[in-house]
Structure formats: structure tokens, C-alpha cells
Design a protein that fits this description.
InterPro entries: Peptidase_M14. This is Peptidase M14 domain-containing protein. It comes from termite gut metagenome. GO terms for molecular function: metallocarboxypeptidase activity; zinc ion binding. This protein has 379 residues and is α/β, with parallel strands linked by helices. The protein is built from twelve helices and nine strands. It has a seven-stranded mixed beta sheet. A two-stranded antiparallel ribbon has the order 8-9. The chain starts with a helix and ends with a helix. The N terminus is likely disordered.
């Protein structure tokens, strides 16, 4: 009996030590967290960033958050070709969630040219869309950290902003591609990690992770709607018409972090110039502050396009909102050596997590600008 108690105590010490370490990395200086909300580490059984989280377990964790907190509700809006649920965790204040359908109906008045708009009574709608390309892995894991933080945070600033906003967290826009990447990388990575770029973990094998079940690129399917995941997502999008839409991606491992504005020659002249000169810069200000706070490098205005409405970052621009591409240099697994040094999965997760918080701050601080822009767009 004493031996069993000693073993149990030792395990608890190890788990607590790991949780403290993880809290410091992702949450240090971010206020108190509600101890009644299960942490990601307690649920998944490992520190976020040590391995990739499975998509089905993410959905299960989101259901648990919705069950444990009156700040969260899980909505299933479709299924992928491989029968995985497409979900959004809806996070807001308890009073907002109780009144969610009324909030939605009020928000739809913003896109009705015949309806009058009272900005003060409106909630700002923020959609965080992660991991549309299956192998761009830090998105889904960052969604887990962000979901936990928004639900568990007792920081008065976050609590107050959630009263002014409804946040949608979509953990993966491509559940099938994400799971393909997860199985491959978790199957080949070692502990301690092998950071040699030639290691098998850092390739994709014979089945590309980028696309969905049919290897279709879902990030270029917002307008064609050739795939069931896109059809479900766009239908759900039009239930709410988000004001802010974040589209999380990854790029080459040697790169840092990119956010918009995009180059001026990629702007579409049929859209209001304020989309680029005002709304993108509102987000960019908050994104730069977030990454500056932890010393992460980034750039903007040098690459990627804003021209066609086929992308997750551009389609919202054509609906009176503002979409934005976020690109972080890929770790292609748990860790990879680059010319600039070691790039880790955990680092990418933290960057995406802080960008997610920054989006909420930007949206709530500039609520009137964003809502009036969308209203004017539909006049």
C-alpha cells in the first residue's frame, strides 16, 4: 500500500512539474487560470508541443471545455469525406452564449442594407481558422492552447473582451489532412527530437499531407466549393459573417512569421481600399505587439496575395469583413535545424497562440470601425 502511494505521489509530482513548465512557456504573465478547467496537458497526457495532438482528441477536448465551462459551446457544422466532424468551439461570456441566436440575428442586420445599425448593441464576430493544410501543423495545437486560455482565463481584460465578442475556434479546416500528418509525424519522430532536416520525420512520405482526402487544396476552394468540407464551411460562414477571420498557415522553415498587409500590387481594386489600408493595419499593429512581447521575428508587405476570393484569407474581404493570412516558418515536426538556428514546434504554437489573443484585442478595440465597414460594404 505504501509503495502504491509513493508511486502515485511520484507521478503527481512529475505531472505537476510538467504542467508548471508548460504554464510558464505559454501562459506566464497572462493572469490567473480557472483550476476547474482541465488543462491540455492533463487531458492529452503530454505537454503541448512534444507531439502532435490527434484531431479526434481535440474535438473530444473541446466537448469537455464546453461541458465544464459556461463560456464555451461546441457546434458541429459538417463532416469531412473521412467522416470526421467539422466543429467550431464558440467562446463568449455566459450571458452572450445564453442569448446566442439573438446575437446572430442582430449581427445579420449588419449585412442587411435595409436594417438600421446600433454599433453599441452589437457583438464583434471573430473566427480563428487553423490548419487548412494538413502538414502545416502548429495551427491545430495552437487552437487547443487558445481555446483553453479563453475558457480558463480569469484576467479581467480577457473576460471583458469576451463580453463584447463571440469567438469561433475551428481547430482544423482540413481534418483528414491533419490526421494524415499527425499519424506520419508522430510515427516517425523520436524523443529527444531529431532536428536533422534529412530525418524522415521532416518529410511527408508518399502521401502528401497538404490536401484533404482527395488531396484537394481546401485553401483554394472557398469559391469553387468542389469539396464537401468547403461546402460545409462556407455555409457556416454565412450564418455569421465574421468581422475578423484569421487563416493560419506555415511556410519554409528558414522563414520567420508573416502577417498582412500584403504587397500593394496584390490588392483587388473592386474592394474598398480601407480593407487594406485600415483593417489590415489594425490587425498588424496588434500582431506586431504580440510577437514583440516575446522577441519573435516577423515581416509583412513582402509576399502572398490578396487578389482572388478563393482563399480563406481573402473570401472574408468580399463579405465586408477582413481576412488575414498568418504564416509561420515550419518546424516540419517537433524540431528542425535551420540556418538561423533551431526551430521548434512549441515556438510556432506559442506564436500562433499570441496572434489569436491579439486578434481578440484588435477586434474589440476597433469594434465600431469593423462593424461600420461591414455595414457600408453591403449598402
Amino acid at each position: 500500500m505504501k509503495k502504491n502511494i509513493l508511486i502515485l505521489f511520484t507521478l503527481l509530482v512529475i505531472i505537476a512539474t510538467q504542467a508548471i513548465a508548460q504554464d510558464k512557456y505559454y501562459f506566464e504573465g497572462r493572469g490567473k487560470l480557472n483550476p476547474a478547467i482541465p488543462t491540455p496537458e492533463a487531458f492529452f497526457g503530454f505537454q503541448i508541443g512534444k507531439s502532435l495532438v490527434r484531431y479526434d482528441k481535440v474535438v473530444e477536448y473541446f466537448r469537455l471545455l464546453a461541458d465544464k465551462s459556461d463560456r464555451a459551446s461546441l457546434e458541429v457544422f459538417g463532416k469531412s469525406y473521412e467522416d470526421r466532424e467539422q466543429v467550431a468551439l464558440i467562446i463568449s461570456s455566459p450571458s452572450n452564449l445564453k442569448n446566442l441566436e439573438n446575437i446572430r440575428q442582430e449581427h445579420l442586420k449588419v449585412v442587411d442594407p435595409n436594417a438600421s445599425l446600433n454599433v453599441n448593441s452589437q457583438k464583434i464576430i471573430v473566427h480563428l481558422g487553423y490548419n487548412v493544410h494538413g502538414g502545416e501543423i502548429a495551427g491545430t495545437d495552437a487552437s487547443v492552447v487558445a481555446a483553453y486560455y479563453f475558457v480558463a482565463s480569469e484576467d479581467p481584460d480577457i473576460v471583458g473582451r469576451l463580453n463584447d465578442a463571440v469567438v469561433f475556434i475551428e481547430p482544423s479546416l482540413n481534418p483528414d489532412g491533419r490526421e494524415r500528418a499527425t499519424n506520419y509525424i508522430n510515427g516517425f519522430h523520436s524523443w529527444p527530437p531529431v532536428s536533422d532536416p534529412a530525418d524522415r520525420e521532416h518529410s511527408s512520405g508518399i502521401t502528401p499531407h497538404r490536401g484533404n482526402h482527395f488531396w484537394n487544396d481546401l485553401n483554394r476552394d472557398w469559391l469553387p466549393l468542389s469539396q464537401v468540407e468547403s461546402q460545409n464551411r462556407v455555409a457556416y460562414y454565412h450564418k455569421w459573417y465574421p468581422n475578423v477571420y484569421l487563416d493560419f498557415h506555415e511556410m519554409g522553415s528558414e522563414s520567420t512569421y508573416y502577417f498582412e498587409p500584403s504587397p500593394r500590387n496584390t490588392w483587388n481594386s473592386i474592394l474598398p481600399v480601407a480593407t487594406y489600408e485600415v483593417l489590415n493595419n489594425i490587425l498588424a499593429k496588434h500582431f506586431s505587439q504580440a510577437l514583440n512581447s516575446i522577441g519573435s521575428l516577423y515581416y509583412t508587405k513582402e509576399s502572398f496575395t490578396n487578389l482572388s476570393p478563393i482563399y480563406g484569407s481573402t473570401y472574408p474581404d468580399y463579405q465586408g469583413g477582413v481576412g488575414t493570412t498568418l504564416e509561420v516558418g515550419s518546424s516540419a515536426g517537433v524540431a528542425i535545424e535551420t540556418e538561423a538556428g533551431l526551430r521548434t514546434f512549441s515556438h510556432n504554437i506559442r506564436d500562433n497562440f499570441l496572434i489569436s489573443i491579439a486578434a481578440l484585442r484588435a477586434a474589440t478595440e476597433e469594434k465600431a470601425v469593423l462593424l461600420n465597414h461591414q455595414k457600408d460594404f453591403f449598402k
